[in-house]
Each structure stands twice: as C-alpha cells, then as structure tokens.
Design goal:
The protein has 2 domains: 94 residues; 237 residues, Bira Bifunctional Protein, Domain 2 (BirA Bifunctional Protein, domain 2). Helix 1 packs parallel to helix 4, helix 2 packs antiparallel against helix 4 and helix 5 packs across helix 10. Strands 1, 4, 5, 6, 7, 8, 9 and 10 form an 8-stranded mixed β-sheet that branches. The protein has a two-stranded antiparallel ribbon with strand order 2-3. It has 12 helices and 10 strands. Strand 6 and strand 7 form a beta hairpin. The protein is α+β, with helices and mostly antiparallel strands. Bound molecules: adenosine-5'-[phenylalaninyl-phosphate].
Length: 356
C-alpha cells in the first residue's frame, strides 16, 4: 500500500465509524465497534503495524496521520459511550419511578381564535375591500364624546338608554363605539369611511343576550349624496359576507339621538330559527344592527357642514353577531373562559348549539 492508498483507507474508516456511531443504541454495540477499529486486531491497529513497510522518509508522516486518526476515533467512541450511559441511567431512573418513556404523551390542543375575533376579522376584511379604514378609540371615554357630541346633552332622557359605569376620575367606560364617530370626523374630515370594532360596557343585568362587557362595531360613511339606499346596500352586503348567504332581516324605525332617521335592523334568530328561545327573548328576532343617517348636529360637532355632506352610521352588535354565526345560545359563554366558548366555531357548534 502506498501513502495515497493509506490516506483513502483511513478516510473510509473515519466516515464509516461516524455513521455507525450515530446509529448505535446500546453500550454493548459501542464496545463491539471499538474492538473492530481500535482493538488488538482492529482495522486502525493493523494499519499502525504497517508503518515499517513504508519508505523511511514517509514513516514520520504515516505515523502522525494514523495517530491523529486514532485519537479522533477514540474521542468519538468515548462521547458516544457517555451519551448512551446517560440515557440508560435515565431509563433506569424512569422505570424505577414507574415511568414508561415509550407511553404516548398527553396531546395538548392548540389554542384558536375567539369567535368574536373571528367575526371581527371577517368584517374588517369586508369593509377594507369597500375602502373603509379600521379605527380605534379609548375604552375609558369622556362625557363629551360618549354623549354630548352624539346629540345627547346631560339633560337628555336618552342617557338612560345606556346604563353607564362612571369612574371616580369623572370619565366613563364607553357604552358604545359611537364616540369614535366624532373623533374620526375631527381626525380625517370628509369624505370619510371607517369602522370601529371595540369593547363596550354597560351597567346592566346580564342574561342570555345581555352582557356588561361586549363588542360592537361602529361604521361611518360620510360623503356627498350618501343616502339610505347606500346604508341598506352596505348592511345587506355585510350580512351576506358574514353568513355566506342571504339572511332574513327586518328593518323598523329606531330612535337614537345621533341619527335621523334611525332604524333597528334585526335578524332572524339563528339559534331557534325564529320559533322563539331565550336568546331572542321568544321573539324570533335578534337586535343586531341599529343604524341611520348621521344627525346634522353630530356632523356639526365633527366640523362637517351638513348642507354639503351626509352620511350613515351603524352600531353592529359584534358579540351577538358571533353568537348567531356560531350558534352560541348564551352570551355569558363568550366571556366565561369556558373552553367550549374559546374553541373555534365549527368545533364549538357541536357542544353549545342546542334547543332552549
Ligand atoms: C347603540 O349602542 C348605538 N350606538 C348604535 C348605533 C350606532 C345606532 C350608529 C345608530 C347609529 P344599542 O344600544 O342598540 O345602540 O346597541 C347596539 C347593539 O349592540 C345592539 O343591537 C346589540 O346587538 C348590542 N348590544 C347592546 N347592548 C348589549 C349588551 N348588554 N350585551 C350584548 N350586546 C349588546
């Protein structure tokens, strides 16, 4: 064998040893491998005995190459031995403690999107396509934006329509997302298209369809020549996109000081199909989408000339819409932390939907 051939044999031994070490799973096999390579009759040991067959001037180089390879292989084998010793010791400890490491582990479910968030994202997507921006406003609001600018002065009986959590600092927890109407007018001026999904708070008795903390989504469109026809077209589109089909709705006059005319848009209760249940208070209809044409006084508060611009606004009950979409018959589940209320819609229906 010449020097070049020796080099390639050593290289092959290194590569094979590395591959085998990666596959070994017991100390016994490590022992066997060590004997095959470094033992008395091992492959590398035999190569060492061939040094004297090389010309004198090459022996130093041959010896150095074989020693480097020997040290390296010894180190690899030792590392592998220690790794297996550790894992065997661990298995011994586990079986002494009655643990079976081959037993399948506990499968943890993945978290998923809350139904209200899922509906909110869908609505954002629909409105962004229509050129609306998504705005936010403070949950701790002042009287001015929550009431005054919405044409509800302090003496107005309409203040009683929304029972309010007043705070010690004189502010309040916003009772609806409508305060962002005038905030947006001030920020952008006309023309204006925005939606405002967000949390609202009311000091009221809770039941299957009323929470003290719930979500709404305000919508506002202001431009020249905006009419009720635009309002109804957008409302219909919104519901069709959320439910992927036409849903049965009814429009009736509604009173809100900040719109004129105002409407209540109700949808057929999807929990009972309209026959009556606790969610729809036996009426077959759920109040979901109050709306109307923005009152001239509100436009004025926002610095907009009502002779030049008109607009519509709506205050979608987002939590109720999510209930209808996903068949949740009690609003209290939405904030309860009940895992059935936190899993994603399709899975949720099987557990929560039901006759009441
Ligand atoms: C308002 O809050 C108005 N700001 C809506 C509006 C905006 C009208 C713009 C016109 C123009 P209302 O109090 O009806 O209106 O509430 C709106 C929706 O929020 C209701 O239809 C209902 O779906 C939902 N909602 C109201 N109170 C609660 C509650 N306690 N729990 C759950 N959802 C509620």
């Amino acid at each position: 064998m010449n020097l070049e051939e020796l080099k390639s044999v050593v290289e092959r031994i290194r590569a094979e040893t590395q591959t085998h070490l990666g596959q070994l799973s017991s100390l016994e096999r490590v022992q066997e491998l060590e004997a095959r390579i470094l033992g008395r009759k091992g492959r590398l040991t035999e190569l060492l005995s061939t040094i004297t067959t090389f010309p004198k001037e090459q022996r130093g180089q041959v010896g150095q190459m074989l020693n480097v390879a020997k040290n390296e292989l010894t180190e690899w084998i030792e590392d592998c031995r220690q790794r297996l010793q550790k894992s065997e010791a661990m298995i011994d400890r586990q079986s002494a403690a009655g643990i079976d490491p081959t037993f399948p582990g506990i499968v943890r479910g993945f978290g998923s999107i809350h139904p209200v968030t899922a509906v909110q994202w869908k609505i954002e997507e629909v409105f962004e396509r229509l050129g609306f921006t998504v705005e936010a406003g403070p949950e701790m609001e002042n009287d001015y934006y929550n009431f005054e600018t919405l044409n509800i002065p302090a003496w107005h009986p309409a203040r009683d329509m929304q029972d309010t959590f007043w705070l010690d600092n004189g502010l309040l927890l916003r009772t609806h997302t409508s305060p962002v109407q005038v905030r947006a007018m001030e920020k952008y001026g006309p023309p204006l298209r925005c939606i405002v999904p967000g949390r609202c708070f009311r000091y009221e008795t809770i039941d299957a369809s009323h929470e003290n903390t719930f979500f709404q989504c305000e919508g506002l469109m202001i431009d020249k020549n905006i009419s009720i026809a635009n309002l109804i077209a957008v409302m219909k589109l919104l519901l069709r996109e959320v439910f992927h089909r036409d849903v049965m709705i009814r429009l009736r006059p509604g009173y809100f000081p900040f719109v004129e005319p105002g409407f209540e848009l109700d949808m057929r209760c999807m929990i009972c199909g309209g026959t009556g249940c606790s969610t729809c208070k036996q009426s077959g209809w759920v109040e979901i989408l109050p709306c109307g044409m923005v009152h001239p006084n509100v436009l004025r508060f926002g610095g907009i000339d009502p002779h030049e611009f008109t607009g519509f606004a709506f205050g979608l009950g987002l939590t109720r819409l999510a209930m209808m979409k996903y068949g949740v018959r009690d609003i209290r589940l939405m904030n309860s932390g009940d895992l059935r209320g936190l899993v994603h819609a399709e899975r949720m229906c099987g557990n929560i939907i039901g006759k009441s």
